[in-house]
Design brief:
This protein has 256 residues and is α/β, with parallel strands linked by helices. It has twelve helices and five strands. The structure holds adenosine-5'-diphosphate and magnesium ion (MG). Adenosine-5'-diphosphate (ADP) binds next to helix 6.
Length: 256
């Protein structure tokens, strides 16, 4: 290929925002020649490479913006450690069909059973599939909404929690809320209802949400919307955090 043509292709690719092609055109042409590629296969290669790079970049950026505490995946989850949790149920959720339906997922159970791990893994999968994702703890979200309210930016802050296709709200129930705070949660849940998915984790059963939210009527109104379209997974096995320590404690002795 003449230098003139290569230069022009690079300029055009750059103007079209095809940055990968700008950098790799000579290498791709050499590959096409070596493999004696047909015209269609070559165009397919160029577009496939460019798209792959772009998707990878988009995925990395989306993960950065998602606020996820880590990027653990389902492959890193040891299902044998939670025999009561059906892997099939999680695999079904990982098809992300619930996001298309604007449905929710609730992961309930005591500390250390993998609620945040599974919520994050589903969120990473959603992110990879091109959905926008945001992760927050309930306390952090409420704290930010309160600050926003005090400075006249409540709606803008609320909108930032309404926009993502998937909102992960972690650790519902760790700290009790007052009525004004619970009311903010109600606004969020009712505005996302049938519009976008939520994945929530909680160490409290739904029956205890009245106490958590400081108001039974508000709790019922929130649960009504949250649970209308919701897969609920209760994980009641052992804590993975204590896994190694449990094996060190001889039977009958008190836990450290
Ligand atoms: P929870 O949110 O239920 O308190 P986490 O999801 O934070 O628990 O899990 C605690 C730690 O143990 C994390 O590092 C998580 O990755 C790990 N973990 C929990 N369950 C499993 C499991 N079944 N297989 C592999 N790692 C697990
Ligand atoms: Mg957790």
């Amino acid at each position: 290929m003449s230098t003139l043509t290569t230069t022009r292709i690079r300029e055009h690719a750059s103007k079209l925002g095809m940055t990968h092609l700008t950098d790799t055109i000579s290498e791709l042409v050499a590959r096409a020649e070596a493999d004696q590629m047909g015209y269609l296969d070559f165009v397919d290669l160029l577009l496939g490479e460019e798209l792959g790079i772009r998707e990878g970049r988009r995925f990395r950026n989306a993960l950065k913006l998602s606020g996820l505490p880590h990027h653990k995946t389902l492959d890193e989850f040891d299902f044998t450690f939670q025999p009561d949790l059906e892997p099939r149920k999680i695999r079904d959720l990982a098809t992300l069909e619930f996001i298309e339906r604007h449905a929710n997922v609730a992961l309930l159970g005591p500390p250390g059973v993998g609620k945040t791990h599974l919520a994050s893994a589903l969120a990473v999968a959603a992110c990879q599939a091109g959905y926008s994702v945001y992760f927050t703890s309930l306390d952090d979200m409420v704290r930010k909404l309160k600050i926003a309210e005090a400075t006249g930016r409540f709606n803008r802050q609320l909108t930032s929690y309404l926009r993502p296709s998937v909102l992960v709200v972690d650790e519902v129930g760790y700290l009790p809320l007052d009525r004004a705070e619970a009311n903010m949660v109600f606004q969020l849940v009712s505005r996302r209802y049938e519009r976008g998915s939520m994945i929530i984790t909680s160490n409290k059963s739904f029956a205890e949400w009245g106490q958590v939210l400081g108001d039974d009527i508000l709790a019922t109104a929130i649960l009504d919307r949250l649970l209308h379209h919701c897969d609920v997974l209760a994980i009641n096995g052992p804590s993975y955090r204590l896994k190694d320590r449990l094996t060190l404690v001889p039977k009958g002795e008190p836990m450290p």
